[in-house]
Amino acid sequence: MGVTIKQAALIVGGLGVLSFIFGVIAENKKPAAGTPIPGKDSVLCKYPSDPSVALGYLSVSFLILSSFAGYWSLFYPYKGKSVPHSVLFQSTSFTIFFSIAWFTGGLAATLLLWPTITEHLHLTRNVHHNLETQCPTAKTGLLGGGAFVSLDSALFWLVALMLADNARQDHFDQVENGIKA
């Protein structure tokens, strides 16, 4: 038994929602700053325990899975019938939404990875030789923004899937009626 379009849409949407949720929670759990502990010739930054780095990486993982599932769902041969890619890309709307889905996925990955990696570096490289350091954390708002763009990406994949389904149905109607595309 193959995958249906509804199942593919639920997978893409579900993974996108999970990416969104993990990104928003990561933003909310991120500490505002660390506590500087002065030493003899360095400052040790003590950060409170928080799951923001792990949640950020989870958000990125679900974004990648959602984008992969979205791309896969467009070209999957539903009911054993595949459609040439050229048929799908003849639709201007499909091409636009396909491109926007890729762009927003890349933007979301950037917005999620940047603060996650930065925060990870702050936590692991917490000894500073500048005695004036204030123990910074990653820029506030990027994880939350990335989470919203991640959700947008999943929604654009779903719109592209609907447009691909319409193009697929039109193609098979033309084939059945003997009309050359």
Task: Describe what is shown at a glance.
With 181 residues, the protein is mainly α.
Would you tell me the structural class of the helices and strands? mainly alpha
Contiguous helical run count? 5
Quaternary status: single chain
Mean pLDDT value: 92
Q: How much helix is in the residues?
A: 55-70%
Largest sheet: 3 strands, antiparallel
Protein name: SHK1 binding protein 1 isoform 1
Subcellular location: Endomembrane system
Family: Belongs to the DESIGUAL family.
Organism: Hibiscus syriacus (Rose of Sharon)
Can you give a write-up of this model?
Helices cover about 65% and strands about 5% of the residues. With about 180 residues, the protein is mainly alpha-helical. The chain has one domain. A 3-stranded antiparallel beta sheet has the order 1-2-3, with no helix packed on it. Helix 1 packs antiparallel against helix 2 (about 50-75), helix 1 runs antiparallel to helix 5 (about 140-175) and helix 2 runs antiparallel to helix 4 (about 90-125). The mean pLDDT is about 90. It is a multi-pass membrane protein. InterPro entries: DEAL/Modifying_wall_lignin1/2, DESIGUAL. It is found in: Endomembrane system. Pfam families: DUF1218 (PF06749).
